[in-house]
Each structure stands twice: as C-alpha cells, then as structure tokens.
UniProtKB/TrEMBL annotation:
The lineage of its organism: Eukaryota, Viridiplantae, Streptophyta, Embryophyta, Tracheophyta. Gene3D superfamilies: P-loop containing nucleotide triphosphate hydrolases. It is an enzyme of class 2 (transferase). It comes from the Eukaryota. It comes from Solanum lycopersicum. This is Sulfotransferase. The keyword Lipoprotein does not apply. Its EC number is 2.8.2.-.
Length: 89
C-alpha cells in the first residue's frame, strides 16, 4: 500500500511522482538518468493535476474546531500503529 500526502506532493512533486512510479513499476537507473520522471511531470502537467490551486493548511479556512477535532479523532483511531505522520501546517 502506498500513501501519498498532499503536502509532500506539493513540496516535492518529482520525488513523490517517482515514489508513485516505483510503486506501480520500478524505474530503471537508465530511465531515471534519461529523465523519465521529468518527462512524466511535463506530460501530466502534475502541478495542475495534483494541486488545483490548493494551499497547504487551507483546510483551516473551512473546518470548524469541532470538525477538526472529529477528524483528528478519526485519523488517530483508524491509522493507529501505521507509522503515518500527518502535517497540519
């Protein structure tokens, strides 16, 4: 199972795209050296696909304190022991 975090995709799209590609099918050293990951980013226009003008932490503009508390509880309950770390910037 692969988890991609929005914040990490936005901060480091090339690294996260490489993780996704390797999860689906490993990238050879030759492909990496040839710039396959960069070409995929260009072809997909990953910035538009992944970001849709969202900003990290923008959720705070839409969630009430009660909604945030409920989500935090649900995340803790469902991801306990998964070693996933969430960024709430």
């Amino acid at each position: 199972m692969l988890f991609l975090m929005y914040e990490e995709i936005k901060k480091k799209p090339k690294i996260q795209l490489k993780r996704l590609a390797e999860f689906l099918e490993p990238i050879s050293i030759e492909e990496e050296n040839f710039g396959v990951v960069d070409e995929i980013l260009k072809m997909c226009n990953a910035y538009n696909l992944f970001f849709h003008q969202g900003e990290i932490g923008d959720w705070k503009n839409y969630f009430t304190t009660q909604m945030s508390d409920k989500l935090n509880h649900t995340i803790e309950e469902n991801f306990q022991g998964s070693q996933l770390k969430f960024s709430y910037d």
